[in-house]
């Protein structure tokens, strides 16, 4: 385990996965709010480069370690005023190619963190995913909906179940150990620093469009998603963690502007003034035979707005522009 010398105040905010795409933006926001922050990240999918803008900040400490391997974990948790648990194995490519790693990482690391946090009852926000809604065909997903998970032969649903078990476990600690928890289900968060390395669609499209290369759209391209700008996601996370009424609750965080993947590809090409063609690629070629996808994934976000007074509003065109003009995608 590598770490910087501690320069923190007695209390700090602990962010697991803080060197990741969403985590790094959250860390910047917390530091801007005057918080001392400890980042705990094994850098398996995150990168210290994501934190380069604040790397020398006197109130930031970065610890390179898995949660379960961190020898300081008990002390770090005991000194935390709150915890954001964003560490997870994510991305469709990773889910398909390394299913054992994905499932064991998501289950074990969350269990270790919740057990440690329960000793001091420090508030924990657990990041889950819209994948838990599974194969439901509802036009929009609400937090109280029944969940329809696909068969175990499909590794995608193993990821969904691992995140769903994180939710069950967090709520079990809330009931049995009085641990203050908030669960958030993230819907397709996008923006600067997101990488296409693990199959994320928007950075893949933007990178291809910049190079005037074909934008590869998987399946028939009619599957639709709602994208949420990362700073809107961060605002929602901060508000939920700071709201007593959110404790013990499950909240969707996502945009409301629904778009098909082929229309997204066209919008990226148009917004960037690219000459790229759009190419439909069968799922079997992109991933593996029998890959199961959700046709729609639109969140109901009224609960978030009601409890926090905030609802993501950054338009998709603006998201594309901000992501494309950032230093890297």
SSE string: EEHEEHEHHEHEEHEEEHEEHEHHH
- Quaternary structure: single chain
- According to CATH, the homologous superfamily is NAD(P)-binding Rossmann-like Domain
Could you tell me how far the N terminus lies from the C terminus, measured between alpha carbons in angstroms?
29 Å
- Number of helical stretches of at least 4 residues: 11
Question: Would you mind describing this structure in some detail?
Answer:
The chain has 329 residues and is an alpha/beta fold. It has a single domain (2-189, 227-255, 297-313), classed as NAD(P)-binding Rossmann-like Domain (Rossmann fold, 3-Layer(aba) Sandwich), CATH 3.40.50.720. Helix content is 37%, strand content 17%. It has 11 helices and 14 strands. It has helices at 21-32, 73-78, 92-97, 99-117, 155-177, 201-210, 230-241, 261-272, 283-286, 302-308, 316-325; strands spanning 2-3, 12-16, 37-41, 60-64, 80-85, 124-129, 181-186, 189-190, 215-218, 224-226, 228-229, 250-253, 258-260, 278-281. The strands form 4 sheets. Strands 1-4-3-2-5-6-7-12 form an 8-stranded mixed beta sheet, with helices on both faces. The chain is globular, with a radius of gyration of 19 Å. Mean pLDDT is 91; it is low at 1-8.
């Amino acid at each position: 385990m590598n770490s910087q010398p501690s320069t923190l105040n007695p209390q700090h905010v602990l962010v697991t996965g803080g060197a990741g795409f969403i985590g790094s933006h959250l860390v910047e926001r917390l530091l801007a709010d005057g918080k001392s922050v400890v980042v705990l990240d094994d850098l398996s999918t995150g990168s210290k480069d994501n934190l380069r803008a604040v790397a020398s900040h006197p109130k930031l400490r970065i610890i390179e370690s898995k949660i379960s391997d961190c020898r300081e974990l008990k002390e770090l948790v005991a000194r935390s005023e709150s915890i954001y648990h964003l560490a997870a194995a994510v991305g469709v490519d990773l889910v398909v190619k390394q299913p054992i790693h994905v499932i064991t990482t998501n289950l074990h690391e969350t269990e270790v963190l919740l057990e440690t946090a329960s000793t001091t009852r420090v508030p924990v926000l657990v990041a889950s995913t819209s994948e838990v809604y599974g194969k439901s065909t509802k036009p929009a997903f609400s937090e109280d909906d029944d969940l329809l998970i696909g068969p175990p032969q499909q590794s995608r649903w193993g990821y969904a179940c691992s995140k769903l078990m994180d939710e069950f476990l967090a709520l079990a600690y809330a009931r049995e150990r009085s641990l203050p928890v908030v669960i958030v289900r993230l819907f397709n968060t996008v923006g600067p620093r997101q990488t296409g390395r693990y199959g994320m669609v928007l950075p893949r499209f933007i990178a291809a469009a910049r190079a005037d290369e074909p934008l590869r759209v998987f399946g028939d391209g009619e599957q639709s998603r709602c994208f949420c700008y990362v700073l809107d996601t961060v605002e929602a996370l901060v508000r939920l963690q700071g709201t007593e009424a959110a404790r013990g609750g499950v909240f969707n965080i996502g945009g409301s502007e629904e778009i098909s993947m082929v229309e997204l590809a066209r919008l990226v090409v148009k917004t960037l003034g690219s000459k790229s063609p759009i190419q439909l690629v069968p799922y079997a070629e992109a991933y593996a035979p029998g890959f199961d996808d959700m046709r729609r994934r639109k969140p109901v976000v009224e609960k978030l707005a009601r409890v926090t007074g905030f609802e993501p509003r950054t338009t998709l065109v603006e998201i594309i522009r901000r992501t494309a003009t950032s230093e890297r995608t």
